[in-house]
Amino acid sequence: MLKSASITAKKIPPKKTRVIDRRHSAFDEAVAGLNAEQRKAVETIEGPVMVVAGPGTGKTQVTALRVAQILLKTQAKPANILCLTFSTSGATAMRDRLRSLIGPGAYGVTVSTIHGFCNDIIASHPILFEDWALREQISDVERYRGLNKIIDQLLPDLQLVNKKYPHDRTKAILEGISLLKREGKTDRAFLHSICDAFDLLKAEESKPGTKAHEKNLLAAVKFRDFVRIFLKYEELLRETGRYDYEDMILVVLKALEEEDWLLAGLQERYQYILVDEFQDTNGAQYRLLELLTTPRSPEDNPNFFVVGDDDQAIYRFQGANLQNILSFHKRFPSAPVIVLTTSYRCTQAILDAAGSLIEKNTERLVGRIKDLDKTMTSASGEAGNIPVLFHAASDEAESWLIADLIEDRLREGVAPQEIAVLMQTNGELRPLWDALRARD
Predict the structure, then answer these.
(1) Distance (Å, rounded) from C-alpha 411 to C-alpha 167?
(2) Is residue 241 packed enough to be buried (19+ CB in 10 Å), middle (13-18) or exposed (0-12)?
(3) 76-124 pLDDT, tens per residue?
């Protein structure tokens, strides 16, 4: 007969949370310096979150500290975090900031531009993107030459261009093609359906026989011409083994939509997705983010963090769209909207002047999102010098007026290296240079 064994259950210690590198206590010091809104953005790490960050409000610091907070408070590894920025310089700045906060673990976090991220996906799956690997990016010269040949082939049946100077609109047509691709609206069936709808709309908008009716029909014909040119241009790219810069995102989008295993693998890896400068994303980029954060089951809630400011959307020419921010809010209506309004960069006078100007814009989040207030305040508490607007008598006199102002400042003891003149174009610099040289 076996003796009964006395089994003593060992007490299982609680799971230890991952501790980030604090050798320089940079993380603790940085968190201690946060204001209430910044701290909320850093500490709200689960679920979708939108941060509206005005200029100089420390959004890069908030994003970096949030990554550190995720590593400190959860079981996530650096490889489970995807941090996307708009520019390469932004990605470099974010990486440096992370390294100062969490040490070597920063190199495990995927910090990249959206294009760079797509390029990494392509490079990591050479078999899936085998056809793409055989292509080369088309140069600007090739684009212009190729499109001019297409226009010549379609003449004289094109209403979109001037038959006497058919290549005058090449640049505008190429910009239209790029815009289509940035918005991800390149499907052949979709374009033809838009043409049909456009024809019907234009025909019904005005009475037949009127000038307005003829104008509408001409607009519809021109749109059809543009679609014909676009489809011919796509054929040219395929035949010559070339691709546009914007195509990199589109080919990855197509793969994610068709290959569920690829999308599932990325979703499994990246448990936390953070996007900086969200206001500058275009339609195709937003669609990519939407796919990556699509729940695999109804109970899933994506950890999707976006930070941006509609008033700083400076890339409209690249398809940047206020609608993307609104789409995020519509998709996640219960997600917290955290507004950073304390600026550490400007005096109050500068903020007030900028605010009085930008409030005239009609496309703003204020009024679109309930109770959203973006009134900026200066952290320094200094009123600062009020900006002054001067009107020169003429363009020629403007350079001499600026020279007068500079001379006054120098006479007051202001050092030359503390004076800056900003011009809109390089061509405007020469007249000012001549004026400054003449005044010694």
Answers:
(1) 54
(2) exposed
(3) 999 999 999 888 888 898 899 898 888 888 899 999 999 999 999 999 9
